[in-house]
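Example record for the data management plan.
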Amino acid sequence: MKTAITIFWFRRDLRLEDNAGLYYALKSGPPVLPVFIFDKNILDLLDNKTDRRVEFIYKTLIAIQEQLEKIHSTLDVRYGRPAEVFRQLLDEYEVKAVYTSTDYEPYATERDREIGRLLNDERIPFQSHKDQVVFEKNEVVKEDGSPYTIFTPYSRKWKTVLNNFYLSSYPTEKYFNHFLQQEPIATPTLRSIGFKATGEPFPADRIESQLLIRYQQQRDYPGVNGTTHLALHLRFGTISIRKLARKASELSETFLNELIWREFYQMILWHFPQVGKGKAFKPAFDRIQWRNDEKEFEKWCTGQTGYPFVDAGMRELNSTGFMHNRVRMVVASFLAKHLLIDWRWGETYFAERLLDFDLAANNGNWQWAAGCGCDAAPYFRVFNPALQAKKFDPDLRYIRRWVPELEELGYPPPIVDHEMARERAIKAYNKAVKGS
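Corresponding structural encoding:
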């Protein structure tokens, strides 16, 4: 006789504490079996078999398994395509319901529709709950119900709608005795799913109060420790957005605004899914005649442009999987405007290398920098990398760390003249916008 269970399906919410979908699953009745699927549809697209994001997920799953073993339960980790895995689970258990947390990306919504149809055929409820954002979809919209496309009025409405209810934690711990009681199920090794660990450390998930207090003053200076490095944890849900937003509300409105930008881009992706499928938010910008010089793109990728601020950023990314936010803006603008290389090339490069890669934020920020997104920087605004470095890295602390050969003969001259590139970019953008 099959064991009757409720399944909780982990995705972008890799924690037991303050987890909305898990909370409702634990309260639903039958014992809960937590499941995670290493999705072949995603992993098969990763050429780098030492991808540290997969390693981070694996490390986090091991930690969750250890927590569950202490209460005599287990995490069931599987490797395969989600529909195939769910058919296996339906064969092995009497599944009463499946709970999960909502994912808003295009692939995720298609995947969930497929799983929903499969479960519906078996008359099994499939419930999805908001967890990775404070406000989703249509919760912060204009009076007529249409989505905002400008950040400032969106953020004002976001703060107006906010109250303690939306930031309250879900007390999952009260219901831990509702987990399925059974012997631990062995977790597949990284090697068995085709990946290898590097053993390199990941940013901590601590919320440092003093850093948040200083955030407004220090966040633009890459040479100092002025940012939280929590984007990785937000991406995979190893920290609760509600917990972080509560802390930001107390200590730093500037940091809270960064969290709201994240939700703004999630909302844009949901209402305008074409932006996640290679389309500019402003269609006119799809007419830009890009130069797309592959040799120049390679120099940008490897940090050999002759612009130290740009090169430092790319080397930091290639070495650590992280890039300071101020530098990201300069680097992205440089690719799209100085080199007139399609911003989608840069978006893809970042997607492959950022530890904190998030489709909505990565796309939104690239389109912002390229001037073609919603509420984007005007297309005629072209960052001057030299002036940006002078303003935000005046003592060259950041640049010298990543470009130690700066004052040596081996450092390359600028790949392009700033003034010439600026004029060339504005001309190309003008032509696209005017349709001539």
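Summary line stored alongside the record: The longest helix spans residues 52-70.
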